[in-house]
Amino acid sequence: MTVTIKDVARKAGVSPSTVSRVLSNHPRISLETSRKVKSIMEEMGYHPNIMAKSLVSKTTNSICIILPKPAEELFSNLFFMELIRGIVTQASRAGYDVLISSGANEKEELESVSRLLKGRRVDGVILLYSRKDDAVIDFLRSNGYPFVLVGRSDKYDDILSVDTDNVMAAFDATSHLISMGHQRIGFVSGPPNLIVSRDRLEGYRQAMAKHGLEIRQEWIVEGEFLQDSGYRAMSFFMNLPNRPTALVVVDDMVSFGVLRGLNELKFSVPEDLCLVSFNNIPISELSSPPISSIDIGIYHLGYTASQVLIQTIQETEAGAGYTNRFIIPHRLVVRESSMHSPGKN
Questions:
Q1: What is the pLDDT of residue 73?
Q2: Do the bridges between strand 292-295 and strand 331-333 make them parallel or antiparallel, or are there none, so unpaired?
Q3: How far apart are CA 296 and CA 66, in angstroms?
Q4: pTM value?
Q5: How do beta strands 62-67 and 97-102 pair?
Q6: What is the pLDDT of residues 84-95, one digit of tens each?
């Protein structure tokens, strides 16, 4: 005989609606009640009908992560792996499954998001990027779909977002190099259409301006968040007649390419060129030399984004009072790559 919610509720001494809330990990259910009900479910061999539950509640208990590029490129960058780990950990604890979708371009991403949400396959979306004039954000916002942006929008102030203060983070990274005596400091940037690239470049500019230091256009190179971008940039930088003595690099993976390029050109870090990077992924301290990096709390970015989205989907009273923008603190981790002053033997 099939065990029903009413059977579980009767034995637990609670209402069927309480059992349903336990199944959906509703925050209003006490830990004691949740444990009691789950124990009775296990004892009675009760297994929820997920499809029926979805039809009744009009929810799927699933969220989707939208990747900004084809997955094969992103998964080579440990930043995204750690970000997704944070998202999945929190979602799992809340009883949600996680889907991952990607597209080769903005049009494909938009089609994927539309298909998932209009087909009621997921309850909400986490975007792992923020672009200028983003059509995906426009679509989600105009249709009232729950979503959280990892980053910030330059167009809307009312959307949920979880971010680092990237302007201040880059300001701190640049200021550290200035404190070491560097005056000729370059910047290896990411794609200019990404807000994170623009914000980190702005922080670099602000720090240089505050200290009255010259910024030359040839000291700023744009690329992708890939090792090859850093590798290619070195051929350009190290052949400048008045080359920088230090670099701020937009991402740790790009920094690994910088180190590889410098090594092939027979330059050494930090003796010939100092550098500071961003994200502080675990292998930053294992590189040769260990890389100074801004720790932006990648795991916590993902965990918080997942938490905020799920609370928004559930429309709890706590969620209704939330601010729109969550800032995860950053810190500079100083290692060997930046510990050298220009002209020092």
A1: 59
A2: antiparallel
A3: 21
A4: 0.80
A5: parallel
A6: 999 999 999 888
